[in-house]
Amino acid sequence: MDTATGIGGLALTQLLGGEGLMAATAGGLIQPGRLHHAAKAKRCIYIYLEGGPSQMDLYDPKPVLNQLDGQALPDSLTKNMRFAFLSKESARVMGSPRTFKKHGQCGMELSDLIPHIGSIADDICLIRSMHTDQFNHVPGQLLMNTGSAIAGRPSIGSWLGYGLGTAAKNLPDFVTLVAVGRGVPGGSASWSSGFLPSKYSGVLFRSEGAPVLNVESPSGVTDAMQHRSIEAVGELNGLRNQFIGDPEIESRISAYELAYRMQTAAPELMDLSGESKATLDMYGLDRNEPKIEGGNRGGVGLFGTFARNCLMARRLIERGVRVVKLFHASWDHHSRIDVELPHNCALVDQPIAALIKDLKQRGLLEDTLVVCGSEFGRTALGENRPGFKTVTGRDHHPNAFSLWLAGGGVKGGQIIGETDDIAWNVTKDPVHVHDLHATLLHLFGFDHTKLTYRFQGRDFRLTDVAGNVVQKIFT
Amino acid sequence: MRLSFSVPFIIRSAAFLTLAAVVHGKEPVDFGRDILPILSNNCLHCHGPDENERKGRLRLDTHEGALGAGKSGENAVVPGDLASSELILRVTSTYEDEVMPPHDVKEKLSATQIDLLKRWVEEGAKWGNHWAYQRPAPPSVPTVRGPAVEDVQPIDAFVRARLDRERIAPAPEADRRTLARRLSFDLVGLPPTADSVRAFVEDRRPDAYERYVDGLLASPHFGERWARHWLDLARYADSAGYLNDTPRPYAYLFRDWVINAINQDMPFDQFTIEQLAGDLLPNATLEQKIATGFHRNSLKNDEAGADKEEDRTKIAVDRTAVTGAVWLGLSVGCAECHTHKYDQITHQEFFQLYAFFNNTTDKELPAPQSAELADYVAKMSSWEKKHHALEEPLAAYLPSLLPDRLSEWEKATSFPTARWTVLKPKGVTFFTEDDETELTPAADHSIASRPGDPLKSRFVVEAQVTMRGVTAFRIEALADPGKFVGQSRRGDFALSEFSVMMQVAQGPQEKLPLASARADFASKTGSALEAIDGNLNTGWSVGPQVNESHTIVFDLKTPQDFPEGTRLFFEVVHYATGLFSRFRLSATTHLKPEATTLSDSILAILDLPSERRTQDQQLQLARHFAATADVEGKKLTQAISEHDGKKPAYPKTKAAVLTAEPRSTRIHVRGDFRNLGDSVEPNTLAVLHPFKPRTEKPDRLDLARWIVDPANPLTARVTVNYIWKHLFGRGIVATVEDYGTRGEPPSHPELLDYLATTFVRDGWSRKKLIREIVLSATYRQSSVPRPELMDRDPFNTLLARQNRVRLEAEVVRDAFLSSSDLLNRQVGGPSIYPPLPGFVTAVGRDKDWPATETDERYKRGLYIHLRRNIPYPMLLTFDAPDSSAACFQRERSNTPLQALTLLNDPVFYECSQKLGETLFAKGKDRESQIREGFESCMSREPSAAELKALISLYDDQLALAQGDNRAAMVATARVIMNLDEFITRE
To answer: Are B72 and B90 in contact (CB under 8 A)?
Structure first.
């Protein structure tokens, strides 16, 4: 469908609201003047490391932890806290074996487990003062991905689609790639369109084989046969419409044409033969995966998959996809953190850094926002869950955790916020999940208080009734 | 909710229509219709019922408030006096610091709205209630112009009167083939067969239409069709959501209850009462309890480490909000954190409603289905037959061991010396983190845990014991045949701690010191001593010997006397791993008793001199000997115990229901369940009709009866509007879930009230209402869009035609299966798992998708297993709800992913293949095959141009398929089934 001239052929539903809030009669093209303000970001890649990576072992160095190792925390810190598993009466501080080093011109201190991310320190804005309301995975993930701990709300990518409108092309606007690991607890709720129309929903892709469900013709149906069939569908729908005159029929014809274009675009998307060896190596597609002692709940057999997903994210946004969400579910280290955290860091560190570098060298980082984070952090206390004979991990911790952003107007090489000596509470510049969301929308040109959708009599926002734009992130 | 249009647009368009009528018609201003929406949308956020948000001490949601003065001292509204009315001065002001709404608010008042406010003040500023809070009265039916006034049905009279006013003629009636298809999809959700269409078209009787309708209303598929609509509201799913997304394998009992109730045309008031409070009806039947499954569809967070009380309150909040939205059409949920910003629902009232659901506990009831019971009885009888067959050779063999071999064995064997007294529990209390339950021990004095009982729990068993010189206690951990000894995933348990308290008469409780412990067997990591080491994290366990019973013995430090009146309290603590499946307590007076699994009854026989034993006792002993120490006997008894393990299990089917459990309710300040405010009692909304509970302690039954009280202004309107929406694609009130002041006013208020009052008068009959609607000329109109009305009435609010709507997700699938004759038409039963590729099912934590391989996978779409974390992709692609919240209105999107699904998804391709092959197998010429295929799919013959296009398609595909006629016909059938018309109602 030619988006510039397709107005007459567009369905009524598309013209009136179906094309999103901002897009109007120009067939889905974004009208920059209709944003609330000028946008710095046009695309988003959101890397979601499910489970709650440990901030004090990765991003937020706390030498005091080792001094306090084995000691109890004062009541004042634990009194009003709820924990998923640990027994606060007998829990003790657990030190960290990690060493931290300064990276880049900015001198950002990062853990020895993420040297590659260290190499892009000057591009990233590290927030050490994130905090959330939720201490269980699913509510936490829902809050982080949809702005509410209650299921049924639209995810960030869906809000962006609703705000920016769809631009017809060969691929969906919002794509999710999952390196499954032990499974994403909330399933598709993290990329669902909630109460927004389902076309704003994230579409689940794979990075190998056929990228999306049903994108391959059934066996025995050749491309020529498929093409002839699509043509016939268009012709016959057109004949019918001469009697009916329903724009929905026009819309159906376009949908079939677009479907066929997706079918033909899919092999090209998946074909990596045009990627240089240097690129493939940079992402680490063929890295050797180290053996992990005693197995691992989510990180085994995924070194290649995750690297491929990162590369695919770049290829997707190059082809016009607006939001790509990358999930990896293996970061819930209640036990064996000193075995599992290094393994999972080795899995993601190189491909993530490669993605940033690759975007940058192609001039895409400027207006592509990259977010890397999770639903919460982990406790300074070792996890003494009943039944654990030894303490080797950390429990969920909502009060303080780290997350970083890059590109899309974000000012790199800076650290926002501070936490206390044990990364327990935020002591400077707290950033709530709602604040992060407000800032994301701001970067895309939206005032988060004005991007609303009425459902069951109420005007809903991504940021519920809260959220302040964190100016420091982009100025 | 999934709307096909952006909601703000609808509201604007409808407001335009009503405003236009007032402005141009110069009808008097109607407060409820014209003024309240303006106040509500523009003023009440700051000048409404919520005291905390109120600005300038002015409220405009009450008459006194509007007539009074705010902080400025000026009266907001002075009836008849524009110049003195501060409200008018403010809304017309050009000064930034004076104008209302404030200059920085995006939404401004339009000139039309300001004009209405002025005219309202001029006309005396009459106040009134919001229309939806006033009880509907049967309206008088208007007389409309037309050739045959006497034939005009009331529904048509209301619609035509409005069209007449707008000088628009209704659309002509659709042809019979279109009507046949429309009715069939609307009433049973399936395409009509070619034969039934032909019969209807050829039926010349004057009541042919009525007969066709009545046939569909009587079909068992009617219940399926309309149940699915209701299940959208019930947020029905087959799993619990959140991290574990725990399967709810018996949720289908509720789904089938809905299907049956609708098929039987259960009156809607009864339908309501049973779902909200079926358990509280006198002599409630199992079916009435199953009906309460409506609210068991709430999501439940059973993630380890979740706060259980938080989740319980969240569920009660969900039930309160859903009840308000589904039956009252009010966004009650908005008042969870604060008083409603626009509607008259206070924060306290939310918690009065919440109290009904707070006084409720979830429960599972055994609910074996008749087919399952029949199956169980049959399996049991064949099991018993085999059992007898295995017992016979043993019974014949055992006497041969008597007396010689038995006594040899007795002499040669050393038996445990200790004898035990089984303690009879007087009471058993089961403590979990958030629950305390009384348990009843079995007749053999053993105590069983229940499947799903949580870890971190303890049993406290009280027993009255009168014994002297007790040296030790024993726990038998019992494994039933074919069952595990413990509840862990591997069948193990861990006894974390065991202790005994003693109390004589009214004296103090004292702990009896335990010196040592030993077991007949212990796992490598859990010795017997770990049960008394004072560490909850360690305990006695028995893996891998989890298929057998085991025994642990605890020595007392010193022998104890228990005089008459002694009460012992045994505490059995499980903290990690798993609970005992079943256990029993005993005491002994022997010193250093052995930990053995030899049963007490055998020991008792052994204690008798052989000449004093009965023949039966001898045989029992012989059986024990045979089972443990005799080669031939072992063979025979092993076969029996193996067979015992295969004993058919009683059907596990359990219904999820509600039961009453009083709790006290306090307001959650700002919606936070840990921040409790004032106490409240169960009560209803003051803005609606009076509440007349049966007793001083109102319960859900009182609430349910209040909801279906004919004095309720909302429930009947809300319900008829849903039904209307399903038959026209749009409600008379377009915001079907919001009848508050921010909702859209009805397009045809009198029609809505006519339908609502008729519905109640006719005994809340769904079928009668649907029948009356589908018999109307309004329903029968052609749906062909009318270009001349596109600008005036873009959403067909005036009903100058029918609407052309795409079929719902499930019905799209049903149409494919039905037209290819693959459909399995069986009604009801457990949900099915049509096959899915692994990468789709693997994203959630529960990756198990046991694909249905039988022809049950061709059952209708509403039977597909709905897993909240992995919604069935095809259903979601076609806008079925994901069951995370009640869905009041499905969207009707039109996307490339839908095209890919219908073209390439294996099930849909299979349908094309089946249809193509069936047509091909008839052996007729290609044109006849194509004609027949087209007619069976579209309920009409193809036009000449369509036929030509299809033949040309066929010929091209034939060439591409190297002359394979079958493949060409499959390709042609596939195109027919991918046409817009095939997945559209007409």
So the answer is: no
